[in-house]
Write a structure and sequence with these properties.
alpha/beta, Rossmann fold, 12 strands, 434 Repressor (Amino-terminal Domain)
């Protein structure tokens, strides 16, 4: 920094202000400092900044699966907020494994990230209590934390599933299937609850054989749907609990000999071209809201942990508006 100051003909404090984006420097002086920086190949020493401020300017993001299209916009939104706050984002996938989630979260804490954003795979997050007490700001997204009080940013899974099922009911369906993710997952349980609420509101019967929760692996979903379509009283409509289920259902129904109505939770690529009615959640808004809340904590805002719920949106495109057949 001394060389930059001498080259630009300014004091060390002025160079520090330019490097750290602080006010109080005239445009002409800032230009001369920037030219000196470029000429000398100066690079800011972030390690020294960490020692001075006690922060690493990095945050961690623990996702379910980086390959899942739903998490792309969410991760990008978190990264944009982190970048705007001068922080680096480090992320990893838990693969829906609670042990892997814990391992990743604690590994990030060991590397002294300032904060964590976690999409939970498990339902017990007491392992993070020492880290939170030590000052690691933590926000949960998509699903709430288990057995601790912490900030959470969620989509309205219950309300969205209720609206999607009600949409099928309004088009004359009474034998409606629900195919969802594993029941221990908060979003899967909430969407099932919304489906049941809509059916009960309409006075419609719910047969146990119409409800299937479990792995979202294509073979499991195909088997469940096939049994429902081949039953003595086949379902006439399907509510798919997430994007992975929806994709498998669409492929199976394409080879089916009669039309079956479909509403999926989560928008999917090409859904508009394929005419798939969905309950859309805003993944980018989830990530952005969670990251903004995290940086509020890092900026010293003191407030009780809160749960923020974002609305979902029904997008009719044709598949959910088919009348019952058979």
């Amino acid at each position: 920094m001394k060389d930059v100051a001498a080259h630009a003909g300014v004091g060390l404090k002025t160079v520090s202000r330019v490097v750290n984006g602080e006010p109080g420097v005239t445009p002409d002086t800032e230009r001369r400092v920037q030219e000196a920086i470029e000429s000398l190949g100066f690079r800011r020493n972030d390690s020294a900044r960490v020692l001075r401020k006690g922060r690493t300017a990095s945050v961690g993001l623990v996702l379910e699966d980086l390959a899942d299209p739903f998490y792309g916009p969410l991760s990008r939104a978190v990264e944009e907020v982190a970048r705007a706050n001068g922080a680096l984002l480090i992320n990893g996938s838990s693969a829906e494994d609670p042990g892997r989630e814990q391992e990743l979260a604690l590994a990030l804490c060991a590397r002294r990230v300032d904060g964590l954003i976690v999409i939970p795979a498990g339902d017990d997050h007491r392992y993070l209590e020492p880290e939170i007490r030590a000052g690691v700001a933590t926000v949960f997204v998509d699903r709430p934390a288990g057995r601790i009080e912490a900030d959470a940013v969620l989509s309205d899974s219950f309300g969205g599933a209720r609206a999607g099922t009600a949409h099928l009911l309004a088009h004359g369906h009474r034998r409606i299937a629900f195919i969802g993710d594993q029941p221990r997952i908060h979003t899967a349980a909430e969407r099932l609850r919304g489906y049941r609420a809509a059916m009960e509101d309409a006075g419609a019967r719910i047969d146990d054989s119409w409800v299937s929760l479990g792995s979202t692996a294509p073979e499991r979903v195909r088997g469940a749907l096939g049994a429902m379509l081949d039953a003595a009283e086949p379902v006439t409509a399907v509510f798919a609990g997430n994007n992975r289920v929806t994709v498998t259902v669409v492929r199976h129904l394409a080879a089916h000999d009669r039309p079956v109505a479909l509403v999926g939770f989560d928008d999917i690529e090409l859904a508009d071209l394929l005419g798939i009615t969905v309950i859309a959640q805003d993944a980018a808004a989830l990530g952005r809201t969670a990251a903004e809340r995290l940086f509020r904590r890092l900026d010293g805002v003191k407030e009780a942990p809160a749960r923020v719920t974002l609305e979902t949106r029904l997008i009719p495109r044709g598949s959910g508006e088919l009348a019952p057949s058979g």
